[in-house]
Amino acid sequence: MTMRVITYCKDGNMEKALALYSRMIEKGVQPDVVTFSILIDGFGKLGDPEGAIGVYTELNIKGLKPDFG
């Protein structure tokens, strides 16, 4: 599923990326630091700091650290 999130983010389709992220959680799949980092990067590239901060906040709530390599 993370590969699809990557594809959506690269295409600038954050709506689909977030929808897939939500489905992951609904199905009991825990997004990892890679998924969160991809989402943060996608929002950043689109110039949406609020979206990036929202994902970053959720990442922190889950006790993960971003991977900006």
Automatic annotation (TrEMBL):
PPR repeats: 1-31, 32-66
InterPro entries: PPR_rpt (IPR002885), TPR-like_helical_dom_sf (IPR011990)
Top-level lineage group: Eukaryota
Keywords of the record: Repeat
PANTHER family: OS03G0856100 PROTEIN, OS12G0638900 PROTEIN
Family recorded in the similarity comment: Belongs to the PPR family. P subfamily.
Protein name (record): Pentatricopeptide repeat-containing protein
Provenance organism: Capsicum baccatum (Peruvian pepper)
